[in-house]
Amino acid sequence: MSVGTERTRNSTTVDVRITTRAELALRGVRLDAEVARPAGAGPSDDGHVLVDGANAALPTNPASPYSVRDGRVWLGEEDTGIELSPVRRPKFYDLTTSDGVRYEQIARLHGSDVLATTVVQTCIRYAESDRCRFCTIEESLRGGATVAAKTPAQLAEVAEAAVRLDGVRQMVMTTGTTTGPDRGARNLVRSVRAVLEAVPGLPIQVQCEPPGDLRWIGELKDAGATAIGLHVEALDEQVRRRWMPGKSQVPLTEYEAAWDDAVRVFGHNRVSTYLLVGLGEDPDELIAGAAGLIKRGVYPFVVPFRPMAGTLAARDGLGAPSGELLSYVTDAVAELLKAAGMSGADQGAGCAACGACSVLKTAGG
Ligand code: SF4
After folding, report:
1. N or C: less crowded end of the chain, CB within 10 Å?
2. Which segments constitute the Radical SAM core domain (predicted)?
3. Are strands 12-15 and 6-9 parallel, antiparallel or unpaired?
4. Is 292 within a domain?
């Protein structure tokens, strides 16, 4: 198929650039990435590259039909016209804290300019019966790629170096869920304060489960966070129970209350949630759910599910969604975002602002 033509699903027309970017997100590219994220919290497992100048997290896959020649993506012998350049290994990875921890065990470069960390690398929901089936938060810990808990001082030290040496422009702080009504927010508050003392003005997105006590949302804002991600991953109750046996015990009504409170505190389009494509949710219901989130002022960050090594999903042989399904949902949600005047960049910080794990930016969201 030549570049510039269009494919259709049902009666919806999806631009080929979106479908190609979706295929890249799912099938990956034959490339040795210098910056990669082998395992960790959430659904990502990728090499970090720039696609047409924008952050992209793509699986590095020796069996992919996509290759890179002269800085462009080729599908077999066809030049797709898409530019791709790898993200270079950042200088801060070569540094070590005074107490002997490598900086790259504390925080990692995502895309070309995002510093990402999992403040607490353990989760109360990681028993096999409770664990989200797409998550590997504790696998990277077992592999020695990271440390269980990052202190605020360590995070401040690494953030300062990453900004100074490697031009990092924003930071994402996520956390495994902890016991207690803050569900991890307390550690995020301390961490945000420490980083902003070291790097005043650095945009930071925090990510956690909806705190049982919503007061913590205000505390995170007061600490200086720019944006917040409260990630539901799926809106269909059956899908939630099947994929997230532990997390689905937090009812959707709690998410809705937390989203609304977060929009009140952080502002319209400063709150986001992941929605994973490929968990078996009806695509039109997923799109309708995204429309509801947009109406609330919450950015639905649509991301393909991919069965990362080490996940229960991979162990059970579950596969990624089709490129067609991902393109269909992404295109529809991007249209809704455009109609509402919401862009990922306007989040100011975080995954929606980075965009690497989604195809939404290519689709105009
Ligand atoms: S979208 Fe989020 S998880 Fe993905 S690379 Fe960007 S900051 Fe990291």
Report:
1. N
2. 107-346
3. antiparallel
4. yes
178 lines ligand 1 (CB under 6 A): no
In a domain, 6, yes or no: no
Give residue 258 CA to ligand 1 midpoint distance, Å: 22
Does any domain span residue 5? no
* Residues in the chain where the model's pLDDT stays below 50: 1-8, 10-11, 42-44
Q: What is the domain count for the chain? A: 1
Domain span at 212: 21-354
Half-sphere exposure of 136 (CA within 13 A, CB side): 24
| CA nearest ligand 1 atom 8, residue | 110
Task: Find out whether the beta carbon of 354 lies less than 6 Å from any atom of ligand 1.
Answer: yes
275 lines ligand 1 (CB under 6 A): no
* CB 361 less than 6 A from any atom of ligand 1: no
| pLDDT tens per residue, range 221-279 | 999 999 999 999 999 999 999 999 999 999 999 999 999 999 999 999 999 999 999 99
Q: Are the C-beta atoms of residues 115 and 107 closer than 8 Å to each other? A: yes
Instruction: Please say whether the beta carbons of 306 and 313 come within 8 A.
Output: no
